[in-house]
Amino acid sequence: MSYEERPQNANKPEGPPSNAPLEEPLVEIKEPPLWFTRALAAPRESRHVTVDGTPIHYLLWGAPKEGEAPKPGIVFVHGNGAHAMWFAHIAPFLSEQFQVASMDLGGMGESGWRPERYTRESYAEEIISVVRDANMTPGYVVGHSFGGFVSLIAASTYGEELGGFIQVDFGVRPKGEHEEWFKDNPPPRPTRVYPDYETALGRFRLAPDQPLANRFIFDFIAKESLREATPEPDHLGRTSEAAGWTWKFDPKIFYGLVLGADLNERFADMACRKAVVMGGLSWNGQQEVMDHHRKVGGDATPIFSIPEARHHVMLDQPHAFTMAIQGLVTAWEAERLA
User: Fold this and answer.
1) For 271-297, what is the mean pLDDT?
2) 336 by DSSP, 3-state: which?
């Protein structure tokens, strides 16, 4: 997730910032390289599927052409307060082999806001609805951070419809360490409205914050995180008390949200394949966290970390992250078709 103005406790499922020291200062890359501009220029579709009366938006690369048979697909699920564009530089590299979706969870990005509270079950239903709407046969769900949490709920609930689930830098904790992050949150307040676009853009932050060399990715997702604020409803019915610029997420997305004390059981017992990919420099990638996932997930569950990546793996090491996802899903597909 990112944003300076964010819901209270919104970064807690992400874990604290890594305390792993940098061996040398990072050199920021601000000019977008050719591979990045090509990825953003790749053809994609913008689609919506309605879930409980709420329009859920997703982007789709590599959809089968008319008359072609359905094919397996990958659905990327972003972290809290984020949006589908966090994977716009990843998805095109997988779209020759798979159809690839990147979705906006309800209340975030270009998806509608629910009139009532959001729940882990409502998010899980949104994820499986994207799989179904894109006619993925089967679908593989890749969830990062908070998206890893709600994707875990989706995979444990709808696993028979999925080919597999990849949990990215979200840590399932031992039962004795379980905590309900949002239990004592106060009622949400509207997101801050900034007087102009440049001021709002300058307030964008990663959460948890971390050093980042690929500044060009940061700048891109920052621009995609803002919406124009007006007292009049926009195309999704969103209003603001003042005119200006503000964040796209619904300030109540975490109000009353329950994580649940059953995550270990759900991770251990699901009807689809599963894997865990952590950032090697992330708090979630520490040895004790990895060992717990191996204990709960069993010997057949691939669990590994990506070197030189912190929590925001797809920003730190985009190519290594892409190859990790491609390798896992390709192997699972070969096993399924054998």
Assistant:
1) 96
2) helix
pLDDT of amino acid 66 = 87
Cα 170 to Cα 141: distance, rounded to the nearest angstrom? 14
pLDDT digits (tens, 9 = 90+) for 216-249: 999 999 999 999 999 999 999 998 889 999 999 9
215/231 Cα distance (integer angstroms) = 33
**DSSP sequence for 104-124:** --TTSTTSPPPSS---HHHHH
Encoded tokens for 291: 């060992």
For Cα atoms 121, 123, 126, give the angle at the middle one, nearest 5 degrees.
110
User: Taking a C-beta distance cutoff of 8 angstroms, is the pair 91, 61 a contact?
Assistant: yes
Question: Is pLDDT of 12 > 70?
Answer: no
Q: How far is CA 205 from CA 48, 199, 202, 208, 239, in A?
A: 28, 13, 8, 8, 23
Structure tokens at 55: 């329009």
SS3 245: strand
